[in-house]
Amino acid sequence: MGNALGDVSNYACCTTRGDEAAALLVKNRHHSWQDVPETEEFQVFFDCYETREEMLQRTFSGDSACSGCMPGQHRPRRYPLERRSSGEMPRTRMQSRAPEVGFRTYAERASVRLPEPVFRDDMPLLPEDVYEDLVPVLKQEVLDQWQKRLKEGDLDEGLQKQLQAGFPELEEWTSLSTVRRMLRASNGNLAQSTVMLMKAIECRVRERELFQCMRCKVACDIRIIGRDRQNRPTIYISARSQTEPLRTLIPQVFLAFEAATRLAQEDGQAILVADMIQLQSHLNLDLFAFKDLANNFGVVFADRLNCILIVDFSWVAQDGCTNADDWCSTLQTLSP
């Protein structure tokens, strides 16, 4: 599942809800993300980090100078949440920020224009540029392995039945963008990328009907609630609303992320907000279902998650998340 997170720019966050009344808003939700109309029209006032432009403006703005401070010092910006460094990170290290909302209406937020991206010849190469020489190699390796499996009949009954109707997934999932994404997720490891892409294609074949109809049984409140400031789709999940065991929930998780992927732009990534208040542990004790979700989700949606914000997680779970280096190379913990 860790492959779903990409490079070092990703963050995983934990925070605690201060208002119990706000938690009650999600208690009686019974509709899935499929019932939310026109998701493109919604904007979320959520961003896990402060942009470089905001940081520079806050640092060098004359308004930020502190009247009672020494020369060169600035009044610290106020945030709605207190923060502390996670793990063994030094306190002097630059942390991700959670800026205040500061907007009263959606129209007011939409009127703010973000800086246009600047591209120069001296800028560092993107990850797909770094691994560009491996793209044709990985694509051909996957095509050869599938041709060998089909020729030797190395397929179970379920896979054979699906492939009798055709194999469009092979062409779709060996596109240049998908191959580059697998290389980014594996940091250019060709052997690992090959295994990931083979498994991802097999999963898409087995779940062909699910991804075609985009319908499933609703077992939890998981939906796309809007976009972040970089226009990435934002997925929300409420653990409190879960009514079915984990195995029944898996198709809905896949469809929520599939919908976010289809709405994604530019980097093709999404944001996940997980509201873990009143997590029902007894519904998530199926280790085989959890392993199945982790193995398939991590390859199908490799490098698709840019950030995870976890709300009301237990301290034990926070420690475990902090130590999960394979999930994200840079972790940020926000706690009261």
TrEMBL record:
Residues 77-96 are annotated as: Disordered. Residues 224-317 form the CRAL-TRIO domain. Gene3D superfamilies: CRAL-TRIO lipid binding domain. InterPro entries: CRAL-TRIO_dom, CRAL-TRIO_dom_sf. This is SPAC3H8.02 protein.
